[in-house]
């Protein structure tokens, strides 16, 4: 551990550079990768105008000026696109004549997926990592107080970071997501056979509804997909957001085109076509050595069961075929439980400058944890698998 370290914020990931970023984060998680975050910045999906102002943190050895850690960070002027909801906290500030924004957020924009939130060089021992996290925490406390930020929020941190992060003065918040776990299945029927007879029949009926349409489902590597394939996906993505919220989505066509250019080998487009070859629907997945991540989808024609088939069942089959351990299909969705997605705990860390609000929010999060624990147990009891 360096005797002394220094902290610096930069307004572009380009200032840090791909080699330095990869040195700290590696390449294992697609959303932590330099290419993903750079595509967000280059396409201007995140900037001051969209309320996501890059403010990345660099931690260096003061003596050697060698980088020892980096942390993605943003100055936020709203709470959209975070998926750890703090709207009630902002409203409470407003009711008391205080400003909740701007705040600092360490997360992957628009991406509710668990991942490392502070990248450390592999030269640090576990004890040195713990010490460094403590120093970063102390710096963040001082920084939000000195520069007029209401708070700092580290969202969807890993369980390891949750354990190592200092406890004093830090608010921990728990959530629940639903992930599919590959219990060494040989095929989809092997997966279904682990379920009770009634649940197994329900899924078979659900999948059979689409048989009359003779649809074709094809996974295509992102870098090998044609421009027409990508435009079809972009159209479908925008259709979904127009239906949900009346706008074309947080992410632009320019962003997705940069993804193809920067990390297309790690992307799978699932193209859905009718029997005449007309493209009907599409979904985008990311792959790592261990995980499949399903993120965006849309369809030009509503068909009963198409969403579940495209977003869940095809992904499960892909994960089984390629020996992937986890399929993370996105946030929320109790409907995933009946389809074999297991509830898992997610973690976030919060530093709040205002002492009284810090106490109130901390108390709220402790109560919320009790409810989350009960909720997770209830969801576990609803899983469709046979009793062991």
Automatic annotation (TrEMBL):
InterPro entries with a match to the protein in the record: Acyl_CoA_acyltransferase, FemAB-like
Top-level taxon in the UniProt lineage: Bacteria
Coiled coil feature spans: none
One Pfam family of this chain: FemAB_like
Classification via PANTHER family: ACYL-COA (PTHR47017)
Stated name of the protein: GNAT family N-acetyltransferase
Species for this entry: Shewanella gaetbuli
């Amino acid at each position: 551990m360096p005797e002394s370290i220094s902290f610096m914020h930069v307004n572009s990931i380009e200032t840090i550079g791909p080699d330095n970023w990869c040195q700290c984060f590696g390449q294992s998680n697609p959303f932590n990768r330099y290419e993903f975050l750079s595509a967000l910045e280059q396409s201007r999906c995140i900037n001051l105008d969209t309320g996501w102002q890059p403010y990345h943190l660099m931690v260096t050895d003061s003596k050697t000026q060698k980088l020892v850690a980096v942390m993605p960070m943003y100055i936020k002027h709203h709470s959209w696109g975070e998926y750890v909801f703090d709207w009630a906290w902002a409203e409470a500030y407003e009711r008391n004549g205080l400003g909740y924004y701007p705040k600092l957020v360490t997360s992957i924009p628009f991406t509710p997926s668990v991942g490392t939130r502070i990248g450390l060089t592999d030269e640090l021992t576990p004890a040195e990592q713990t010490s460094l996290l403590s120093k970063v925490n102390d710096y963040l406390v001082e920084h939000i107080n000195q520069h007029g930020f209401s708070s700092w929020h580290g969202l969807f941190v890993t369980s390891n970071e949750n354990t190592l992060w200092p406890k004093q003065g830090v608010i921990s918040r728990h959530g629940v997501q639903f992930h599919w776990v590959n219990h060494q299945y040989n095929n989809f029927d092997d997966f279904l056979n682990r379920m009770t007879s009634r649940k197994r029949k329900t899924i078979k009926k659900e999948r059979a509804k689409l048989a009359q349409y003779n649809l074709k489902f094809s996974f295509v590597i992102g870098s090998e997909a044609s421009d027409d394939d990508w435009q079809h996906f972009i159209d479908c993505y925008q259709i979904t957001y127009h239906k949900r919220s009346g706008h074309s989505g947080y992410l632009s066509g320019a962003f997705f085109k940069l993804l193809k250019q920067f990390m297309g080998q790690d992307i799978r487009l699932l193209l859905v076509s009718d029997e005449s070859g007309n493209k009907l629907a599409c979904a985008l997945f990311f792959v790592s050595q261990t995980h499949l991540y399903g993120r965006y989808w849309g369809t030009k024609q509503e068909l009963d069961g198409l969403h579940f088939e495209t977003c869940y069942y095809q992904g499960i089959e892909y994960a089984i075929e390629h020996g992937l351990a986890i399929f993370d299909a996105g946030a929320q969705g109790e409907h995933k439980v009946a389809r074999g997605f297991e509830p898992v705990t997610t973690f976030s860390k919060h530093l709040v400058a205002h002492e009284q609000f810090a106490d109130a929010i901390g108390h709220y999060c402790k109560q919320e944890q009790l409810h989350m624990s009960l909720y997770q147990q209830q969801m576990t009891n609803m899983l469709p698998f046979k009793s062991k």
